[in-house]
Amino acid sequence: MDLLMSQLYALARRVWKYRWIGLGVAWLVGVVGLVGSFLVPNRYESSARIYVDTQSILKPLMGGLAVQPNVEMQVTQLSKTLISRPNIEKLIRMADLDLKKQTKAQQEAQIEHLMKTLSIATTGRDNLYTLAYNNPNPEVAKKVVQSLVSIFVESSLGATRKDSASATTFINEQIKTYEAKLEEAEQRLKEFRLRNLELAQPDGKDATSRLAEMSQQLNRAKLELREAENARDAARAQLEGERGRGQDATAASLMQESSLSVATPEIDSRLDSLRRGLDGLLQRYTDQHPDVQTTRRLIRDLEDQKKREVAELRRQALANPATAGGAVGAVQQELSRLLASSEIQVAALKARVNEFQSRYSQAMEAMKTAPQVEAEAAQLNRDYEIHKKKYEELVARREAAAISGDLDVAAGVADFRLIDPPRVSPRPVAPNRFLLLGAALAAALGGGLFASFAASQLRPVFFEPGELRARTELPILGVVSRIISEAETRRVRLDRLRFLGGSAALLLMFGAAMLALVVISARQGG
């Protein structure tokens, strides 16, 4: 510790030896700093505050009808990208900063300067933005901020419109693409249907279902044919029996035969039709079905009516045999007519059975290629439905994009409110001359000390024998003491006073400068 203190003391004595050099450098740096502090031009700041209201009543009203962008995120991103080169170039033109003739390098420097000095700050949650710029000319600062406010508002609307236009253009291109695909799918589907026209079914059933349906139709037609053939054979047998009976039979035998020969063709025809209908209903429904029960009730009623008519004919035959014989002839004529009708019905049903048999055979042959055809049809229909669905979705989204574009430019979607219009502060915001004067004073003192220290290192002086011996590494044979006279002592004292006076004058100069700044600031404030 003693060694360190002795070294510091020795360093201080060497620096003190060159104190006048240090004082001169301090005065030089101080004067330059003082003059520079007053020569730096004032800079005035212009600022404006904008509030962006993103809460609109249109949002809940248009929910589901339009794509609503995140306006808050858009404004936040815009605030971060507002100070960009294209916007700065536009700002220079709007604020008339390009009126002076400038070289390319000067223009680049101006753009770089504006990008560094322009500022936009936000409170984040409140969507309140502060735009600020400072310049030596207050009017220029105000113009720049006014232009920046205009660019901020216009960019937000323009970006939204550009996004909507880009989205609409992209969707229109996709619609054209899917429209072409849809037309191609429709063309392939039409060609397939033309190639397989005979397999087309309006009900949309597959080959297996159609084959089962044809089988049911064929079986039903065969059943009806058998019923018609049985009715025909019964009519033929009854007619032959009527023709073989003798004309001179007794009344008893006539009455006995009347129970067999007396017929009611009309009722029999209706009964036969109802029985066939009942068979068809039983193939589809149960016995409890209302149609089945109604048909059976009608059959029972007709059978009762037939019994009453047969009984009436028997009574007439007993009362008048001649009339009975005439009735028998009429019965034979009616049976002949019924037989002819049965033959026609049997022929028609045979034709129907043959037709259903042919269709069934064709369907069986078509079953060999039906799976492949149905698979191809399913694939074509699936492709067509997919393209159609995408096409309809794109058309719907195009309409939503159009509504969204109109919604974005509508009033109230994002309301930009100018809370504080651009204004210039009456006092300059820069430079801080008190700080500059303090820095100049510190630089002067530091420069003086450094100059004295540098001089002591360049031309070292040794005040102690030990320092000389340590530096030269040579033995010291002796030390010659210096005798200071009174005149020398007075000169040294006067020299110290002059040095202290020069240092005090330097400090007083800076103090006077700060006092002048206080007076000037007070006058500006008043």
In short:
The chain is of the alpha+beta class and 526 residues long. 75% of the residues lie in helices and 6% in strands.
Which terms would index this structure?
single chain; alpha+beta; four-stranded antiparallel β-sheet; 16 helices
Structure explained in plain terms:
The chain is an alpha+beta fold and 526 residues long. Helix content is 75%, strand content 6%. The protein has helices at 2-17, 19-39, 58-61, 71-81, 85-94, 104-117, 138-195, 207-243, 251-261, 265-284, 290-319, 321-366, 370-409, 433-458, 465-472, 486-525; strands at residues 44-53, 119-122, 128-135, 415-424. A four-stranded antiparallel β-sheet has the order 2-3-1-4. A hairpin with a 5-residue loop joins strand 2 and strand 3 (128-135). The chain is rod-shaped and about 195 Å long. Residues 246-260 have low confidence and may be disordered.
What's the structural blueprint in terms of helices and strands?
Elements (H helix, E strand, L loop, with lengths): L1 H16 L1 H21 L4 E10 L4 H4 L9 H11 L3 H10 L9 H14 L1 E4 L5 E8 L2 H58 L11 H37 L7 H11 L3 H20 L5 H30 L1 H46 L3 H40 L5 E10 L8 H26 L6 H8 L13 H40 L1
Antiparallel strand pairs: 1-3, 1-4, 2-3
Helix pairs in contact: 1-14, 2-14, 2-16, 5-7, 7-13, 8-12, 9-11, 10-11, 11-12, 14-16
Roughly how many Å apart are the termini?
A: 57 Å
Number of strands: 4
Major beta sheet, specifics?
Answer: 4 strands, antiparallel
Helix content: over 70%
Strand order of the largest sheet: 2-3-1-4
Q: From the helix content, strand content and strand pairing, which structural class follows?
A: alpha+beta
What is the average of the pLDDT values? 76
Number of helices: 16
